[in-house]
Amino acid sequence: MDEQQMEMLKMQQEMQQMQIKAMQDQFVRMQNSCEHKCVMTENEIRGLSRVEAVCIDNCVRKYLDFQVEMQIHMRELQEPAQLQALQMQQMELGRQMGL
After folding, report:
1. Could you please report the per-residue DSSP string of 82-96?
2. What's said on domains (predicted)?
3. How many C-alpha atoms does 80 have within 13 Å on its Cβ side?
């Protein structure tokens, strides 16, 4: 494996670690938010009431639905820029090849 391949592998590993950290942070934020909204008592021994459990279920579902919608929206915003970058690369390759 040459130096460039090792650098690419290192970058991929760093990106994966960043994604894992982002997912962990998102989970903690979701847990804290839903717990704050839904858990009415401080008593951890008795467990959740049915109302609290349903509330948490709905909260998590809404939170995850929102995250999916945001990912779709961000992807839609990025697509034109990615397409333009690809077109610029094609034009540059064409220019370099004398086309």
Report:
1. HHHHHHHHHHHHHHH
2. The twin CX3C motif contains 4 conserved Cys residues that form 2 disulfide bonds in the mitochondrial intermembrane space.
3. 4
Give 48: exposed, middle or buried? Use CB within 10 Å, 0-12, 13-18, 19+.
Answer: middle
DSSP string, 4-71: HHHHHHHHHHHHHHHHHHHHHHHHHHHHHHHHHHH------SS---HHHHHHHHHHHHHHHHHHHHHH
pTM of the model: 0.60
Distance CA 38, CA 32 (A): 10
* Cα 33 to Cα 10, 22, 24, 28, 59, distances in angstroms: 34, 16, 14, 8, 8
Residue written as tokens 């090849």? 97
Tens digit of pLDDT at every position of the chain (99 positions):
688 888 888 888 998 999 899 989 999 999 999 999 998 877 666 788 899 999 999 999 999 999 899 989 888 888 887 888 788 888 888 888 876
